[in-house]
């Protein structure tokens, strides 16, 4: 009986070694935690501000430029502005607009639209956006 017990002990020991070897090669997959993702509210449209200026002198140009840099749509009405002063202001604002990768469109001979790059400007009559041909600047 004692030999039977020894045999059983030996067999159990071999089985345990086999289980231990299998357990060491067994890789347990890490438990993945759920990831929370914020979903933007698509039901409420984001408000877009349009700022309108009628500059009387060049000292107003930096204030207009700040709105362009803040990626707001800006309409500049030069109807009451001296032609040479209007050219200087539009040149200055065009440089700021270019630096922030904005869009520019002449609406009428004296009204100009500056828009951030995420706003598409489409003229109904097929005029090109920012075409640079401006009667305000011709002599």
The helix/strand order is: HEHEHEE
What is the CATH T-level topology of one domain?
Answer: Translation Initiation Factor IF3
Report the CATH superfamily of one domain: SepF-like protein
Poorly predicted regions are 131-139
Q: Provide the β-strand percentage band.
A: 5-15%
Structure overview:
A hairpin with a 4-residue loop joins strand 3 and strand 4. The protein has a four-stranded mixed sheet, with helices on one face. The N and C termini lie far apart (121 Å). The chain has three helices and four strands, in the order H-E-H-E-H-E-E. It has a domain at 50-137: SepF-like protein (Translation Initiation Factor IF3), CATH 3.30.110. Helix 2 runs parallel beside helix 3 (83-99). By secondary structure, the chain is α+β, with helices and mostly antiparallel strands. Mean pLDDT is 77; it is low at 131-139.
Please give the structural blueprint.
Layout: H1 2-25, E1 50-53, H2 61-69, E2 73-77, H3 83-99, E3 103-106, E4 111-115
Parallel strand pairs: 1-2
Antiparallel strand pairs: 2-4, 3-4
Quickly describe the structure:
With 139 residues, the chain is an alpha+beta fold. It contains three helices and four strands; from the N terminus they run H-E-H-E-H-E-E.
